[in-house]
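Holo prediction. Input below; ligand is zinc ion.
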Amino acid sequence: MSSAPHWIQPHPQGIYVAPADCWVDPSAAVERALVTHGHADHARGGHGETLATRETLAIMDLRYNTQAGAVPVAYGETLRLAGSVDATYLPAGHVLGSAQILLEHAGERVIVTGDYKRRPDPTCVPFEVARCDIFITEATFGLPVFTHPPIADEIAKLLAALAASPKACVLVGAYALGKAQRVIAELRAAGHHDPIYLHGAMERMCRLYEELGVPLGDLRLVADHAKEEMRGAIVVCPPSALNDRWSRRLPEPITAMASGWMRVRQRARQRNVELPLVISDHADWNELTQTVQEVDPRETWITHGREEALLRWHELHQRKARALALVGYEDEDD
Amino acid sequence: MEQFAALIDALIYTRSRKGKLALIEQYLRETPDPDRGWALAALTDGLDFPAVKSSTIRNLLKDRVDPVLWSLSRDFVGDTAETASFLWPEPLRRDDAPPPTVSEAVANLAAMTRASVMADLPPLLDRLDAKGRYALFKLATGGMRVGISARLAKIAFAQAFDVEVDRVEEYWHALTPPYAELFAWAAEGADPPDTENMPLFRPFMLAHPLEDTQVDLADYVAEWKWDGIRVQLVHVAGETRLYSRSGDDISATFPELITALDIPAVLDGELLVRGSHQGGEAGGAASFNALQQRLGRKTVSKKMLAEAPAFVRLYDALAIGGDDLRVLPWSQRRAQLEALIPELPESHFDLSQIVAAQDFAQLAQIRESARDDAIEGLMLKRRDSPYVAGRKTGLWYKWKRDPLLIDCVLMYAQRGSGKRSSFYSDYTFGCWTGDPDSDGELLPVGKAYSGFTDEELKKLDRHVRQNTLNRFGPVRETDKSLVFEVAFDSVHASKRHKSGLAMRFPRIHRIRWDKPAHEADRIETLRALVRD
Ligand SMILES: [Zn+2]
Ligand SMILES: [Zn+2]
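Structure of the complex:
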């Protein structure tokens, strides 16, 4: 006998909230979608109505160029949906605008986390712990080998590499939404106020962050500057551009990548990364398990990532858990 | 240990040879003795701690981590030592126990036995962070997998202290880790290690391919190039050693040769196995396959000694009776070698004969008509040349016989199909773009999946698995330490290949377990064989 509530139904294409006839982070276009955050595997375009934070809507607008059906929700605000379902958006600490969605119906509380992390991040509001019956969590870094080091250590490594090779530049591969801005903001917080050069694909998102109130300092486009000007500078690009011809325009680039995967040596080597920076916007193993303990749900459902290990942890701690076979979620280049 | 751990990590992430050299040089200059000596030994696979195996690490973790979480983690990370370094429970207190130095770690590891290791290793691990634990596991189990050959480490040493790499190579074999005398000499200007009475390896003199050059036989002498393995036999102060091309001591593999030489001398020759397969002139030799049976064995049975006795066909003498002959011209060394031959047992030594020819054209004819399997081609040696280490232009040439043969380095391996699907049986090999000791790099020149026996395939598969640097789906990148002699019908210019060359019907002619990778051929050698 399952203790799962009948009104919340995991399907391969997303989580369906039956009484309200709406979906959370659906992978296909639907009539009404509740979206946790702007990453492409969670936020698809083309929905009839999209309920998300103002920031997530702005990010989706930038990507899909649609404002139709946008319904902004503030953190902590509760929306009454059809069929007596209440939806409350709580900060997830993952990227700007990211939210966990708390759904309440018939006295039961369900939280869909989307992606989340527990570390401080100058570009977004920190994760908020809330109790619930069903906790629907991600598990991107759900293996005990993943323990993210303090970001200050990684930023110090980056600045040390820069100082050690004044004639070179350090090219940092970072996910264009969230990671890039977080790395830049952390560099600023560490006292690095030199111009930072951007790959063209980064520009609009960084500008949007600034418009939404996240200052990023002096940013310039690589395309507008001569090779010589970028010596001794930090350049940020999407991970896909790291080993691309594009980087030939840079002065002796040292290849860095900011990602939780950089913890594993082989992963860094596969991408020809010379300076791995273990910086992640997801919860690490200890944070995933600690969060489950704090939230203390009756049952944990796991959306995507390394679910087997997290399931095993639940078993070892006499907690109920199941893996949802959701499609369309990917390991972000993160 | 922290600096050593940082060096290991930096080497893993540094791709360029120049970058790797710079890292090792800096470490060797900045690290005190004896830590740097132990580190150098670790980088050159010069350490062995029999008590610590990969299975030891697994067993240690089994008591501390849930087995399911361990195996999921191990599968994801792909490396036992690395997984264990992450999963080792962080101790609560660390302030009172600073990380061990490399020397301390080495002393501890050396003192461990199979019985004590499970109790002795944990306290050491508790004093290290994840990076330190990784370095300690790698140090303990050997096989750093950081893409450094012993040769490269020696070059780094030479560059760090501005000494000649050939001298480093020569003293190296006289010393044991942590190489205190070597550092005293190179870094502090002390007298070089006393090698007078040591059975030392001397770096070999090597040949360039002849290609389009023609030489005047008034200046050059021709010898057959025999199809065995090049060896150096050293006898000094009552001790005899046999060295392979890469300077490995292979005395135990050929005990009959060790007892056969009792005159102080350093001799250069080709090791062959007696047999009737090839006529030769005095005393035939068996095929290379027969010799292969005897290679790589740590002990030899009586049966094997009787069935496949080894002998050395001598090319040169580097020293006789305590006199270093290397500065003398070839002709004088040859005369001394010929004078020595009657004193050596016929059963184990003969002289590589000079091939007489009127002129170069006649020599070419002789080479063409030579069909003896034991002959790989001709060697051309300058009559007035001293014996110099390495490959100096214009002194020695090798003139290989058809089919076209080239020495390549194994770079990538892929699983085969069908019966071979569990074996890494498809090999991509490369040649050097330039001098491997300066900035030459390996560039792939071809692929082969034939030319070896099932027995050899098993050995190759094991080599690939044990020397993997990287995995890309079904493909493994190896540490580029193994040389293949590749036979092929012809080679053509090709725009589709990065090397600009395409080989026709390449197959593995022979696996050169004995040959160091930096002695493989250059791309220009292959390019010179294009006949479009
Ligand atoms: Zn995300
Ligand atoms: Zn995600």
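Chain B touches chain A through 23 residues (CB under 8 Å). That is the main takeaway for now.
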